[in-house]
Amino acid sequence: MTQEKIEQLLRRGAPDLQDAGGEAVAAARRVSERAAEEGFADISYAPVDSPFGTLHAASTKRGLVRVAFPEESIESVLERLARRLSPRIVEAPASLDPVKRELDEYFAGRRRAFDLALDWSLIGPFGRRVLRMTAAIPYGGHLSYAEIAAEAGSPRGARAAGNALGANPIPIVIPCHRVLRSGGALGGYGGGLDRKRYLLELEGALTPQLR
Amino acid sequence: MAPRSETISRSRGRPRSIIVSDQPSALAATKPTQPPRSGPRTTVAGDGPPPFQRFLDTHREDVWRFLVASVGRENADDCFQETFVSALRAYPRLRADSNLRAWVLTIAHRKALDVHRRHTRGALPVAEIAAVVDRAGGPTESEIRRRRPSNRSASETKERDETLWDAVHELPPRQRSAILLRYVADLPHRDIATTIGCSEEAARRSLHEGLTKLRKAIA
Fold first, then answer.
1. Structural domain span for residue A177
2. Would an 8 Å CB–CB cutoff place B162 in contact with chain A?
3. Do A29 and A103 share a domain, yes or no?
4. Percent of chain A having pLDDT more than 70?
5. Are residues A61 and A103 in the same domain?
6. pLDDT tier at A13 (50, 70, 90 boundaries)?
């Protein structure tokens, strides 16, 4: 037999290899799930269905660290997590199950507060003060940017608070949609104003004045 | 926690830092004048490696094909798991210019060697390895033959395939890996040298000797 023929046979791979692509996907999935379960991975992420489309949620060993809206590219979200925290990132849906469950319940109107551990490490010191205040606003309630700024002890005022809220890495769960403009206007929202309106309506906080 | 199977060695340049042998800088150390260069798919951009999941998705099929060819289906999954768990442990210490494809295949090659060593422990003649693998896994060679369909040309093709792959499994480890890295994982010669830890010239020689043996076996 010619060398070319032998090379050709070798390139086809082992005879007991039927569906290399599918088998590799399954084996890789077991690696990811095991890495998350046994703690070899530092960050796990998974897609989460929502009325807004597919969100992505990422958790560290400390807790939920990131929620990304559908239009954010998951690739660049993961790149930034790799750079800021750790490149040991795996897709492991099972480890995000509690996050998925609570978001499902929230969107179904059956949950008024999240009972999830949060990892604040993507948030700077000022942002932490602002977002901790924000996290304390109850379901259905709202505060103004100026009130948040004052409570966060900000000498920089409402605009700085607005920037910190716009940079919220864990939207929906840290309810930055509950911060409105002083006059009662919606203000801004990182995920788009339609979503802010949707969430406030879901929580029964949308007064005729806000519509 | 899985047992830590890597050998720990000390880096010559930095005596205080312990490096794992699966680390890419250990790779580079085998041939300091020619550090592994990166192919287009495997470049590490910027400060560090890409998210591990992306690395896994990019290289899973190459590693799977290599391992099934090298250690057989029944051992492939264990080796695959060990390969990527080892890679994950060493992952944050990767250098910015590492060739990830050659790196992960190096780890896979070593895991495959571990399997072959386990099978040959007890001074088993090399020719019996295929039979041992058969016993550990599915039906034996003769059972397969008995079950063969009556279609003559198909069975002849299958027989030729089996003869070839039996011959691959009987090659000395370095030649076998060189053959599989070249034709199954499609690595360039330079990366084969890096992966099995020899010069490019020696890698070409292993490849040539391996092919010659296969041609004789199948003639």
1. 125-202
2. yes
3. yes
4. 97
5. yes
6. confident
In a domain, A151, yes or no: yes
Structural domain ending residue among the three candidates A48, A75, A107? A107
Testing the interface with A: which of B47, B53, B68, B163 to mutate, by most A Cβ within 10 A? B53
Domain count along chain A: 2
CATH number for the domain that contains residue A140: 1.10.10.10
Two tokens at A71?
Answer: 């239009």
- ipTM attached to this prediction: 0.92
A54 labelled catalytic: no
Residues A95 and A162 in one domain: no
Name the closest residue on chain A to residue B60, using Cα atoms. Answer: A24
Residue A35 lies in a domain: yes
| Closest in B57, B84, B183 to A7, CB measured | B183
pTM assigned to the model = 0.79
In chain A, what residues touch B165 (CB-CB under 8 Å)?
14-15
For chain B, percent of residues with pLDDT exceeding 70:
63
- Give yes or no for residue A14 having a pLDDT over 50: yes
Query: What average pLDDT does the segment B200-211 reach?
Result: 95
- Is residue A2 predicted with pLDDT exceeding 90? no
In the numeric block, the tokens 């890295």 are attached to: B181
**Which residue in the list A176, A180, A205, A206 is annotated as catalytic?**
A176
Is there a single domain that holds both residue A33 and residue A101?
yes
Gyration radius of chain B over CA positions: 19
Cα separation, A117 vs A17, in Å, equals 44
Q: What is the pLDDT of residues A51-68, one digit of tens each?
A: 999 999 999 999 999 999
Domain boundary among A107, A133, A158: A107
Asked if residue A138 and residue A165 are part of one domain, the reply reads yes
From the centroid of its chain, how far is CA B165? 15
The answer to whether the Cβ–Cβ distance between A82 and B88 falls below 8 Å is no
